[in-house]
Design goal:
Order of helices and strands: EEEEHHEHEHEHHEHEH
Shape: elongated
Largest sheet: 5 strands, parallel
Structural class: alpha/beta
Strand order of the largest sheet: 6-5-7-8-9
Distance between the termini: 47 Å
Strand content: 15-25%
CATH topology of the domain at 87-226: Rossmann fold
CATH architecture of the domain at 87-226: 3-Layer(aba) Sandwich
Oligomer: single chain
Length: about 230
């Protein structure tokens, strides 16, 4: 019998011969210690109305999303991007579908001393972001999508808690907007826009922008500390 913990979404199996029959019992999740209630009593035959409701197609807007897929998956150690990162080493997530552009951005990140990981899909990127807060994310708006306005990694970043989001510098690579278009960066909830035509200057663009962002938040955090909000 497969058991799923509703609290941490962990999945594990219990041999059927060890499952009490015809009763309600509980067990403890081995991962988060949550109490899981199991009911093995025979279910009553559903009424025609209930049967119809179960087999009906989900209403629009209720379909399973990529976020549901990521959260409901079992833990896999390979989804954690860094088993160990030395103190002071900064990390980057590079989400770029074009091999040529990806190579140029990778080189820029290496020169900036970032420890970089390169997911192949949006699902892989989100799984890695579950277990690690990256210092820098370079994201092409067409990464794993044909519609730049439906980029799942960008949507995930937009719903992060502000305390987490402000610690991640997000650079959006695009062919639609100009590099360092502040108005569009604000509109897209990113830190900086980088046009694909300026990828050769990625190191210079990122270094200047990251330094400015670090200086701004240093003052911001100092102000929070002085006012007792940290």
């Amino acid at each position: 019998m497969e058991i799923i913990c509703k609290q941490c979404q962990s999945k594990f199996k219990i041999p059927n011969e060890k499952i009490p029959k015809g009763r309600v019992f509980s067990l403890t999740c081995p991962k988060c210690n949550n109490k899981i209630s199991i009911n093995t009593r025979p279910a009553a035959s559903p009424s025609p109305e209930k049967t119809q409701a179960v087999t009906a197609k989900p209403k629009p807007g209720l379909e399973k999303t990529i976020f549901d897929e990521v959260v409901s998956g079992t833990y896999n150690a390979f989804e954690k991007p860094f088993d160990f990162v030395e103190e002071g080493v900064e990390t980057a997530l590079l989400c770029e579908p074009d091999p040529a552009i990806r190579a140029k951005v990778r080189m820029a990140l290496e020169k900036m001393k970032y420890n970089t990981t390169e997911p192949k899909s949006a699902v892989e990127a989100l799984k890695q972001m579950r277990f690690h807060v990256f210092d820098l994310v370079v994201l092409n708006e067409l990464f794993d999508t044909q519609d730049p306005d439906k980029n799942d990694v960008l949507k995930y970043m937009a719903q992060l808690a502000m305390d987490t989001r402000r610690n991640i510098f997000l650079a959006l690579v695009t062919n639609r907007f100009r590099t360092m278009d502040d108005m569009m960066a604000f509109n897209k909830s990113v830190n900086i826009i980088v046009n694909v035509n300026n990828v050769d200057e990625m190191q210079k663009i990122l270094k200047r922008s990251v330094d400015d962002n670090t200086a701004f938040y240093y003052v911001f955090k100092e102000s929070l500390t002085k006012t007792g909000n940290v």
